[in-house]
Design a protein that fits this description.
The chain has about 375 residues and is an alpha/beta fold. The chain folds into 2 domains: about 5-245, Aspartate Aminotransferase, domain 2 (3-Layer(aba) Sandwich); about 250-380, Aspartate Aminotransferase, domain 1, CATH 3.90.1150. The protein has helices spanning about 5-10, 55-65, 75-85, 100-110, 125-135, 155-165, 180, 215-230, 235-245, 250-270, 285-290, 310-315, 345-355, 370-380; strands spanning about 70-75, 95, 115-120, 140-145, 170-175, 190-195, 210-215, 270-275, 300-305, 320-325, 335, 360-365. Strands 1-7-6-5-4-2-3 form a 7-stranded mixed beta sheet, sandwiched between helices. Bound molecules: pyridoxal-5'-phosphate (PLP).
């Protein structure tokens, strides 16, 4: 499997024709239960909360994309994060990046503080991080790289090695890069998390999450909690993601090609104060991005000249870019984090992180890049 290239894996792993009928596309096993020939004698499937053949195919394919031994898919990205929290012994310490997805921040600051202890720190400076890890002695380190929405990049290999040295596990939320552009397990991380809702499914029609890892011990724990708590993904949604996954490589190439073009356009624009995109030389961690990522992805953040009024006018005048939360779909989306995705973070905390009222986030789709630029230009003209 390791010899197969990414483009081949997404088509063929978990994509074998149906052995019973020869159907080239896998059937959707829309069933809750399975017949047993004698009590306790079955074909490995008893009940769909625990196992389902459509889900198994998706998990096999996803594991291959991250060069992982195991994969579990869940009903949402946050359900996957929740399983990790339950897997840890009560009272664990989690050292978490300070610019993580808003929902992750809410989960860790509002739901789990009764069970675990959390500290949010800057993970982009390895030296400062080393002091934090030595002082806090975490059970688990939680990284999101690049972060949302500021696209700050953390050194996965260096931080995973430090965590290992101090006996902590490392989780990397790899949603923004997708397995096509970044493989954290290959760089020493213990668990990779994806919101499949985004690039992996890519068609904005499913909410789902995935965890990939190599440890059998983690597999046993995650399976226990997945089955005991029940946030499994439905057979139909698993099938849709399996279908979306087949085009991940071609989609990511187009997302990136468009994003490079748009980032360069924005950087030249008179009404733009600053552009953040890992593929730009102006990105403070452009070199690290080139080292640990195979591409720069489809997410761009920029600061418009002005404030909330200018932002509002811009957002009301884009047409191809739909004003919506979420990201990673074939269609382009635009988001205003301060009002939309990151509203759950208090204003002072938000601004402390650099999420100001003039920050706009683009999820660049796979449409024609010049059409997208024309759409942005129309909106800028109205500001
Ligand atoms: C969307 C997202 C999540 C949460 O996933 P859901 O599928 O919405 O539950 C986690 N991390 C990142 C980076 C995300 O963008």
């Amino acid at each position: 499997m390791k010899e197969m290239k990414f483009e081949t894996k997404v088509i063929h792993v978990g994509g074998e024709p149906d052995p019973v009928t020869g159907a080239i596309m896998p059937p959707i096993f829309q069933t809750s239960t399975y017949v047993q020939s004698s009590p306790g004698e079955h074909k490995g499937y008893e009940y769909t909360r625990s196992h389902n053949p459509t889900r198994t195919r998706l998990q096999e394919c996803l594991a291959a994309t991250e060069n992982a031994k195991h994969c579990f898919v869940t009903a949402s990205g946050l359900a996957a994060s929740t399983l990790i929290m339950h897997m840890l012994p009560k009272g664990s310490k989690i050292l978490c990046g300070d610019d993580v997805y808003g929902g992750t921040y809410r989960l860790f600051s509002k739901v789990f503080p009764e069970i675990h202890q959390f500290k949010f720190v800057d993970t982009t400076n390895v030296t400062a991080f080393e002091a934090e890890i030595a002082a806090f002695k975490p059970t688990l380190v939680w990284l999101e790289t690049p972060t949302n929405p500021l696209l700050k990049i953390s050194d996965i290999a260096a931080i995973s090695a430090l965590a290992k040295k101090h006996g902590a596990l490392t989780v990397v939320d790899n949603t923004f890069m997708s397995p096509y552009f970044q493989n954290p397990l290959d760089q020493g991380a213990d668990i990779v998390l994806h919101s499949m809702t985004k690039f992996i499914n890519g068609h904005s029609d499913v909410v789902g999450g995935a965890l990939m890892f190599n440890s059998d011990e983690i597999r046993d724990k995650i399976f226990f909690y997945q089955n005991a708590i029940g946030p499994c993904q439905s057979p139909f949604d698993s099938w849709l993601v399996l279908r979306g996954l087949k085009t991940l490589a071609v989609r990511m190439k187009q997302h990136e090609q468009n994003a490079l073009k748009i980032a360069a356009y924005l950087e030249r624009h008179a009404k733009v104060d600053r552009v953040v995109y890992p593929g730009l030389k102006s990105h403070p961690q452009h070199e690290l991005a080139k080292k640990q990522m195979k591409g720069f992805g489809g997410m761009i953040t920029f600061f418009l000249k002005g404030g909330i009024e200018e932002s509002r006018r811009f957002l009301e005048n884009v047409h191809l870019f739909a004003l919506a939360e979420s990201l990673g779909g074939v269609e382009s989306l635009v988001d205003h984090p301060a009002i939309m995705t990151h509203a759950s973070i208090p204003k002072e905390v938000r601004e402390g992180l650099g999420i100001y009222d003039n920050l706009i986030r683009l999820s660049v789709g796979i449409e024609d890049g010049d059409d997208l630029i024309r759409d942005l230009e129309t909106a800028f003209a109205k500001v």
